[in-house]
Amino acid sequence: MVTVQLENIKKSFTEPVLKGLNLSVKSEEFMSLLGPSGCGKTTTLNIICGFLKPDEGNVYVNDVVVNNLAPHKRDIGLVFQNYALFPHMTVKGNLAFGLKLRKVNKKEIEKMVQEAMELIKLEGKEDRYPRELSGGQQQRVALARALIVKPQVLLLDEPLSNLDAKLRREMRIELRRIHKEVATTTIYVTHDQVEALSLSDRVAIMHNGEIEQIGSPTEIYQRPKTDFIADFMGEQNIISGKVASVAEKETVVSVGDLLIHIPDSSLEKGKEVHLAFRKENVRVNKKKLSNVNVFKAQVIYHAFVGKYVQYLLSLDNIRILADVQVDFATQIYKEGDHVFVELRSEDFWVLQ
Amino acid sequence: MKIKLDLLKWYSLIRFVVTLLPLIIIFLSAFSEASFLSFPPKGFSLKWFVVALTDKSILRSIQTSLLLAAVASMLSLLIGTLASYALVRYRFPGRNIIDSFITAPLTLPMVGLGLGLLFFFSSFLGGLSFINLVFGHVIITLPYVVRNISISLAAVDKSLEQSAMILGAGPITTFYKVTLPLIKPGLISGTLMAFIASFNNTTISLFVASPENLTFPVKIFYFIEFFPDPRMFAISSFVIIASLAIMLALDRIFGLYKIALR
Ligand SMILES: Nc1ncnc2c1ncn2[C@@H]1O[C@H](COP(=O)(O)OP(=O)(O)OP(=O)(O)O)[C@@H](O)[C@H]1O
Ligand SMILES: [Mg+2]
């Protein structure tokens, strides 16, 4: 049972980087910290490790404040983006480093190193120096070096960003497998949304020095709360309008001449709102098949990308993107074609 | 490509000859029979070697110089390691001033420095002693150590030290197990350069070495001024051969050549 908690963390360098960050990681959870470059992810990890002191706020490990504990007493595992393997030590030397400091006896070290080498599937390469390993292999040694001392918490700072796409996919699967096996509470820092979504139990989105949304990968992907997250999680359609009427189960938002029906009933009449919907939820038909949320549109641009066709459509004066799945029977519309765009009311959500 | 290589070869050869020529002249002249400085040497004898190696004052000056160089370079190593660590790893007010202050002696005219030290010692530190001589030499040897170690240290990624710490190593263990082994080449070459700089230094010593603590270069300087006979050639050849031997030995042990190339 190990939890990590950040409470109202503030940190400024020349200007404020963290502005009251709150984060609570559950025991054995794989939590991703996702945000654009320069948003303060590494700074957050440095504060958890104790390399930096927060200007304000508290860091808890297992409900104990560790603010004033030196890094070497925190019992945290850390993997850097550049791996930071000790170049003057062999793989075995690197793995044994933390164990020796913990006064583990020689026989035991030998055994644990062997087990670790099996975990990362590098048996037989104990006596190599880091420079004699490939990037992916170094990466795994760095992971094993952090895990071998059985830390309370594992922190990973963009550990896959120096690898090529194929290796990155493989390492994602490896990381998932290893996390299942060791079940260490993990915080994984990345600016790659695919990594965050595919690895994590929960994802925390960082923006403007705070956590803007936290939730399961599906929640984050399907219902990003704000414009920023919606945009960051991939191209989506965001349109702005005004609440025209509010009824028990249905709210109508007017966007220009269009009336959009959404299920949200917590809005006030007359309020300006941003509506989002995913481009893969847009249906494009030749005929008008329903009366609600069906709009006349014209194709401005289309691109066939294999599994689906990407359309840029104009509805009056707004433009939306649509990804439409196709097979050989589906009609593909061309530039200038008049079509009807259909959306289900539950495909819309309101951004804050 | 071929032409370039040939050019390079000739260049190296000429450099080599130009560097070695004065040494060869000194070496040959040391075997002269005459009692004045002459080239080409007149006759052949080993008498000046005997004279030189039995001259207590010369031997004493060599001893002084060796001891001085050893103490100055070791002190520079100690102070320089700490100073480099602070300068490279931390940002603090006055950092740039301290940095320029340490490296300034490399660019300042040494005569001025020597004169300044002489006045400083005689007015504040009770005249000229061996300790003050060491002090003066550390000022000129420290930059070599700081420069070399700083360069090595800057090449050691901070994340290596942080990795060690988070694995459970305190600051001292981290320095000893990770930082130190990685900056060793810089430590060795810096200290060696400091040793040589101290051993070779004439100007500073000329000002601040008291008669009991005459260093070898100063001794030679006085001898040429007052007793210009080939014993200076003999003793110089002896020292040149000895330093070459030491360099070769060190190269065998540490691989200086490799270190210089890093
Ligand atoms: N030691 C420092 N001194 C001054 N500013 C710093 C320092 N460390 C970080 N910053 C600034 O703080 C901000 C956040 O940096 P941080 O390294 O935490 O970003 P990050 O989210 O990890 O980015 P990336 O994804 O590029 O690694 C940046 O604007 C950076 O310039
Ligand atoms: Mg970072």
How is this structure best described in words?
- In chain A, the strands form four sheets. Chain A has a six-stranded mixed beta sheet with strand order 6-7-8-3-9-10, sandwiched between helices. Chain A has a five-stranded antiparallel beta sheet with strand order 13-12-11-14-20, with no helix packed on it.
- The model of chain A has no long low-confidence stretch (mean pLDDT 91).
- In chain A, strand 17 and strand 18 (318-325) form a beta hairpin.
- In chain A, helix 2 (91-101) crosses helix 3 and helix 2 runs parallel beside helix 4.
- Chain A has eight helices and 20 strands.
- Chain A has helices spanning 41-49, 91-101, 106-119, 135-147, 165-182, 193-199, 217-222, 227-232; strands at residues 4-12, 16-25, 30-34, 56-61, 64-65, 76-79, 153-157, 185-190, 202-207, 210-215, 237-246, 251-255, 258-262, 272-277, 283-285, 294-304, 308-315, 318-325, 338-342, 349-351.
- Chain B has one domain (50-261): MetI-like (MetI-like fold, Orthogonal Bundle).
- The relative contact order of chain B is 0.14.
- Chain B is an all-alpha fold.
- In chain B, helix 3 crosses helix 10 (216-226).
- The mean pLDDT of chain B is 85.
- In chain B, 78% of the residues lie in helices and 0% in strands.
- The longest helix of chain B is centred in the first third of the chain and has 34 residues, at 56-89.
- The interface between A and B is medium-sized, with 24 and 18 residues.
- Bound molecules: adenosine-5'-triphosphate and magnesium ion.
- Adenosine-5'-triphosphate (ATP) is lined by residues 13-14, 17, 35, 37-43, 191 of chain A.
